[in-house]
Task: inverse folding
């Protein structure tokens, strides 16, 4: 499929789920903050730096970087989805962060003439891009010599039950995605993320895993989260009667019961991957 058409679909998809992310961002950030912190650290972000965040979504790791660079620094956060970034801008305003600007832009065609960044970041964005190497090349082109980029992806489906629970059921019930390569587990294989960075021209590449432990007050919360932050529920409703939709989510809840403690809390460990590279000159 044509990359521009995939980007257009991704933009629609993320604009649609932005309302759900608005409901859940505090919970999401509760468990994702260690990933933002590590990305900022691996990219070498420090006070006074100018930082690029690509696919910032609801504003991470841009907001973390904005706190780190302080008032003398600056963060430019970019994403395809205006709706996700409106949430990011609300969060930045609520936190009194005046050093972030938001630009609606596809990462693969990013052009910010006259701006050279000290560091670049991307949390869980590359996997949804039809041309991830082109996106990394654009980021590299905007870095000054010695500038580092750090990006994260997810591990394999079985290592990320939070997202993959019900996966085979959904694929049996829903039409195949337009591009089956695009999805959260795409760069799970060891060395893949590092290979993308190398292909884009980065050197001094490092990679490491990180555990992301998510926690929900109860099963109803977990299922509501899954329904609201992805388009799976919409796709189910578009293709099946309400009873089938309810039955499907009940099956996901049965699968998730393995992660519920005696107090009803649902605690799920997931594996993410982080990689960073440097612009040599
Ligand atoms: C899982 S969200 C991650 C958002 C945020 N970085 C975070 O970690 O919470 C993926 C984001 O990638 C963005 N995205 C997908 N394809 C993109 C592209 N080609 N260029 C820029 N952003 C893209 C989506 O709009 C969405 O906001």
Result:
């Amino acid at each position: 499929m044509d990359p521009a058409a995939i980007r257009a679909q991704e933009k629609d998809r993320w604009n649609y789920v932005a309302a759900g992310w608005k409901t859940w961002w505090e919970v999401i950030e509760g468990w994702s903050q260690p990933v933002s912190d590590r990305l900022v650290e691996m990219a070498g972000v420090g006070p006074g730096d100018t930082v690029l965040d690509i696919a910032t979504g609801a504003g991470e790791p841009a907001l973390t970087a904005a706190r780190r660079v302080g008032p003398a620094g600056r963060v430019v956060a970019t994403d395809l989805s205006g709706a996700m970034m409106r949430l990011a801008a609300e969060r930045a305003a609520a936190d009194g962060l005046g050093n972030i600007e938001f630009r609606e832009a596809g990462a693969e065609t990013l052009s910010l003439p006259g701006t050279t960044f000290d560091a670049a970041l991307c949390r869980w964005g590359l996997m949804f891009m039809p041309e991830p190497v082109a996106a990394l090349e654009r980021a590299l082109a905007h870095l000054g010599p010695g500038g580092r980029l750090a990006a994260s992806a997810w591990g394999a489906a079985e290592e990320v039950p939070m997202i993959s629970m019900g996966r085979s059921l959904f694929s049996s019930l829903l039409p195949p995605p337009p591009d089956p390569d695009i999805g959260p587990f795409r760069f799970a294989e060891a060395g893949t993320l590092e290979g993308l960075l190398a292909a884009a021209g980065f050197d001094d590449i490092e990679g490491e895993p990180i555990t992301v432990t998510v926690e929900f007050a109860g099963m109803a919360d977990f299922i509501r989260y899954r329904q609201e932050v992805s388009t799976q529920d919409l796709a189910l409703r578009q293709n099946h009667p309400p009873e089938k939709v309810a039955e499907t989510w009940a099956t996901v809840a049965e699968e998730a019961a393995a992660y519920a403690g005696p107090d009803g809390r649902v605690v799920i460990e997931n594996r993410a991957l982080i990689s960073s590279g440097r612009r040599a000159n």
Notes: The chain has a mean pLDDT of 96.
